[in-house]
Design brief:
Layout lengths: L11 E3 L1 H16 L8 E2 L21 H9 L5 H5 L3 H8 L9 H11 L11 E2 L6 H6 L3 H6 L7 E3 H16 L16 H4 L1 H10 L35 H20 L16 H11 L6 H20 L14 H6 L27 H4 L2 H18 L1
Helix pairs in contact: 11-13
């Protein structure tokens, strides 16, 4: 099974604290607008007009007709509707610059008959509310505020956590682990922040996070700060960091080469030239890579790494993954050169199931061969 990846290409992942601050800043910006724009809303139903609306509210009365009616003392729909025959004749017989034909007047008066009684409803100025977005958009206010130019460059870490939980629940649905599954993630500071942890507990997500159990660290005062927390950046404990990311990067680059001949706007092309194109390339490669064999291999390698770390007393062990943090600088050891080097597969060896190719790339093999033959034929003619 393949879980849907969480894509935030072109965006900055921020903490829940920063996200809440960004929301507050955007709300304050709207509340301080000097020109209301869309935040001053007319609440009347579409097409509804009222007796004391301006005449221009009627369909067919533009600025010029409104000005002519105004010069005859008719400024509201009610006054137009109640126009006497004598007044109508006076308007239709008036000087050219203020004249309105009898047929037009009849049309306008007929439209005015459908006006609702009384004054039109007052417009709502959403800027005056504590949260203009919530008042204007209701349950959709968070989606609306995050789509603004001020908020769209960011994505909150809670969105990633919600994605992890939803996709994990989907993968284990119908299995014996449907109610007991857990997910693993290293100690990303955005996730271990107290605001995020409190939010996860409130949502019931924190209990799904695989954390130290059986009172680990509880008997050592020096390690009290690590109680109920997980290790930091340790690629040896994370298959993706250890090897599988590299597999995916290499396979994506290979697909980029294979589809190089396709036009830039061809949806089958694998292209890393922009964040959007890169996301589309990786989303497709992740459907086939890494393969099940490699996933199982690296997951099992994690347990081997954990045992080696345990035997070493919990310190960083050289050779269990590429780690470039401060602890690595203190323990790094120069590895001896030489030794056995296994033969690598040829870059184009897609036979016997050794390498998997996405369907979008398979169709381009013939294109590449055709382009190569054309180039070769051109060289032969010139020589």
């Amino acid at each position: 099974m393949c879980a849907k990846p969480f894509c935030y290409s072109g965006k900055l992942l921020v903490s829940l604290k920063d996200d809440r601050r960004n929301v507050a800043v955007e709300i304050a910006r709207v509340k301080s607008l000097s020109h209301p724009g869309p935040w001053l809303a007319d609440t009347r139903a579409d097409g509804k007009v009222f007796e004391f609306d301006k005449t221009s509210k009627l369909k067919g009365i533009g600025a010029k007709s409104e000005e002519k009616l105004s010069k005859h003392g008719i400024t509201t729909i009610k006054a137009l509707r109640d126009l006497s025959p004598e007044k109508s004749k006076q308007i239709s017989d008036a000087a050219r610059e203020v004249r309105i034909s009898d047929s037009k007047l009849t049309k306008f008066r007929n439209l005015a008959q459908h006006a609702e009684p009384g004054d039109p409803p007052e417009k709502i100025d959403y800027r005056k509310f504590d949260n203009p977005y919530k008042e204007r958009y209701g349950d959709q206010w968070q989606e609306r505020i995050r789509a603004t130019s001020q908020m769209s460059p960011y994505v909150c870490v809670t969105k990633m956590i919600e994605h992890i939980v939803a996709e994990s629940a989907l993968m284990f649905k119908g299995t014996k682990y449907e109610d007991s599954w857990v997910f693993y993630h290293d100690a990303l500071s955005l996730m271990t922040a107290k605001e995020t942890v409190a939010w996860m507990k409130e949502k019931g997500f924190h209990e799904r996070w695989l954390l130290p159990v059986m009172g680990l660290h509880s008997d050592d005062p020096d390690l009290k700060a690590y109680l109920d927390t997980i290790p930091g950046n340790g690629p040896e404990n994370m298959p993706w960091d250890l090897s599988l990311n590299k597999d995916t990067h290499e396979d994506t680059n290979r697909h980029v080469v294979l589809t190089h001949e396709l036009a830039d706007d061809d949806p089958k092309k694998f292209d890393l030239s922009t964040p959007k194109r890169g996301s589309w390339a990786y989303e497709r490669v992740l459907q086939i890579c890494p393969c099940s064999k490699r996933i199982k291999q690296d997951v099992l390698k994690v347990f081997d790494s954990m045992e080696k770390v345990r035997k070493a007393g919990g310190i960083l062990v050289e050779g269990l993954g590429k780690n470039y943090g401060r602890r690595y600088e203190n323990v790094k050891i120069t590895q001896p050169r030489g030794g056995y080097r296994p033969q690598r597969m040829a870059w184009d060896d897609y036979g016997d199931g050794k390498r998997v190719m996405h369907d979008d790339a398979k169709a381009t093999i013939a294109v590449k061969l055709e382009q190569s033959l054309l180039r070769l034929a051109g060289k032969n003619r010139s020589s």
